[in-house]
Amino acid sequence: MPELSVTEDQYDRLEAVRQDMEEAFVDSYGHVRPQDALEYLLDTYTPPDERNDERSASDIIATAEYPELQRVASDVSGVPGSGIDADEMRGQLLAELGPEEFAATLRAGPDAADESSPNDTGESSSGDVEESSPADGATGEGNSPGVPDGTAGGNGNPLSAANRLLDEHDDKWREGTGDTPYEVELPDGSTEPVRTKDDVRHLLFRHY
After folding, report:
1. pLDDT above 80 for 107
2. Most buried residue, 1, 41, 89, 176, by CB count within 10 Å?
């Protein structure tokens, strides 16, 4: 049988694995050999290119960063995308989606949503803009501040709709009086403080 030379440090580490295996898997009169520990390490090895797929749902959820949680929350009604900390948002999303769906959405990443957006907005809305541009000029929808030319007529574009909401619901948001720059009045009468106009648009788009 071929022999394998290891350093003293490597042997000590292998011995630690052997002892752990013996405590976990063997009864009082059993024994785990060093070659058994080596076989165990080879059997449980995961190649680097497969490690992301092997992560458990709980690990994916626990390590998700705040922007990732906000991305998922933007598609889940009842979970605010701002104004709460990461742990609270993580808990609310977990309660709404369950661990498997939550982890699958995080694993998919933002590219999953981007793949469908060209067809959703490029093919249909581009024709709408060309054909309905005179009507847009007559109704004034194309003159909303902050909306790039050519996108105002695309009613299916969430960003354009969110920008228009700043003007259409200017009575629902205002500059903040406390530590945060802005405040948004929610349908239930409460007020949610936010830090950026993007947060303002997000809440208006969600609730109004």
Report:
1. yes
2. 89
